[in-house]
Amino acid sequence: MGIWQKEFTSVFLLFLLVSIVGGLTGLFLPLLLLLILGILIQQVFQITRFERWIRLGGRSQYPKTTGIWEEIYYHVYRIKKNEKRRKKKLSKVIDQFRQSTEALPDAAVVLGANDEIEWANKTALKVLGLKQSDKGQRIPNLIRFPEFIRYLKSGNYQEAVILPSPVNNQMTLAVRVVSYGAGLRLLLAQDVTQLKKMERMRKDFVANVSHELRTPLTVLKGYLETLQDMDDGLSPLLTNSVQQMQAQTDRMQNLVDDLLLLTRLETQQRKTQCIDVPALLTQICKESRDMLDNADRIVLVLDTQVHIVGEELALRSAFSNLLSNALKYSPDNAPVKIRWYQTAESVILSVEDNGEGIAAADIPRVSERFYRIEVRRSKKVPGIGLGLAIVKHALMRHDARLVITSDLGKGSCFSCHFPVAQICTPKANIMPTDPALSLFLNDH
Q1: Rounded mean pLDDT, 356-373
Q2: Please, what is the angle between helix 312-328 and helix 387-396, to 10°?
Q3: What is the DSSP string of 9-67?
């Protein structure tokens, strides 16, 4: 504020001087105009010099001047200097970022708002087949795998997409997109060839072992049934031993069957058809009621009659496992409610029980293979921990998801959410119009 006071004081003194001289000489107006003209010429000169200095970037030392213009030059010069310091610091950060991403074993590509390539590290050039000259090109034009293009367009980047390398079919990549900034995204591609190879080896091992176990188990079951038929009940030790062996053989048989089913769900190609889910649920519930002392425990609610595209064996296994779990982990007189209904986004099957419930820490893990919650129960619950793993893999084959909600001591709800895109219309049965043909079909 002091500099402005000096400027106003200088102008006021000049105006006072002109007034005194003008009053003595009678030339007040000419002298006043001359004063104003002089001030304007000085300001135009200062503005021109300031504009020239700014136009040249303001890099050099600012011109020598006095008054308010000296303050203006000084503040602009300080802003430019601070900006230069920030640019240098930012440039250093960018260099460090590039050096760190260059050292990454994974491919990294920065994508713009329209999927154009902004920057890529050396690994991306190697495993994705990109070139330095591809900067500015849209990545869907360079990586043309349909699954990758669908993944990029979907906007849902929670899971990675698995695809082969464009330059090496023997290399498998897990590609993930991370959104950041204003419309920018970072594409990361990780080499998972060894992981996929180990996964295939594990699947082959489980499938082979399961197949090999079926024959000896069948032989053991046959001999045990023969021993049971021959048992006259005179030896309690023999009777008890045969019963225990029979129970363990049945348990091993169930384990082998579940492992083989999991292997089929993981490896076999999908063979889909339009599934009448209400009819399938009705049949599953009827089969389960026939095995219960209290058939009223199972409550089936069909709020919709929609059919979905899927595999009947996989859906039957998933729904049966959910119902079986709900019955096993609920009191003998507690009802289990099965509901088939539709919302705007999904078609949902929910299985709700009034059992012991699941702790929040266990919910993310209950669908893992062989995972069982260790709690004290009044009765031993049979099982091997593969039921929910089968459910999860069956739903994955139908682009569906499993949602689990539970309260300890109050019960659980397992919901299978199928996308509405899976809804299908069953083909109508075409009846013959020829009376003779109709008579022939009725007779046979």
Answers
A1: 80
A2: 150
A3: HHHHHHHHHHHHHHHHHS-HHHHHHHHHHHHHHHHHHHHHHHHHHHHTTS-SPPPP--T
Given this model, what pLDDT does residue 416 score? 94
Residues forming beta bridges with residue 352, ordered by sequence position = 337, 413
Handedness of CA 261, 267, 271, 275 (dihedral sign): positive
Contacts of 204 (CB under 8 A, 6+ apart): none
To the nearest whole percent, how much of the chain has pLDDT over 70?
88
Extract the tokens encoding 145. Answer: 């795998």
Tell me the two tokens of residue 246. 């029979």
DSSP per residue over 265-298, as a string? HHHSPP--EEE-HHHHHHHHHHHHHHT-S-GGGE
Cα distance between residue 346 and residue 423, in whole Å: 9
316 three-class SS: helix
The overall longest dimension of the chain from CA atoms, in Å, is 150
E strands, 87-205, are 107-111, 117-120, 161-165, 168-180, 184-191
Q: Is the pLDDT of residue 6 over 70?
A: yes
Residue 399's contacts (CB-CB under 8 Å, 6 or more residues apart) are 418, 419, 421, 422
d(CA 440, CA 93): 85
306 to each of 279, 310, 342, 351, 395, how far by Cα in Å?
11, 13, 8, 18, 17
Q: What is the pTM of this model?
A: 0.54
More confident of the two residues 350 and 269: 350
Which has the closest alpha carbon to 346: 312, 391, 310, 306? 306
Retrieve residue 221's tokens. 């079951």
DSSP-derived pairing of the beta strands 184-191 and 346-352? unpaired
Q: How far apart are CA 436 and CA 287, in angstroms?
A: 39
> What is the tens place of the pLDDT at every residue in 52-91?
877 777 666 777 777 777 778 777 888 888 888 888 888 8
What single-letter amino acid sits at 99? Answer: Q
| Dihedral sign computed on CA atoms, order 193, 196, 200, 201 | positive
* Average pLDDT over every residue of 397-422: 89
434: pLDDT strictly greater than 60: no
Q: What is the pLDDT of residues 241-258, one digit of tens each?
A: 888 888 888 778 777 777
Which residue is listed with tokens 């689990």? 404
List the alpha helices (DSSP H) in 291-434.
312-328, 387-396
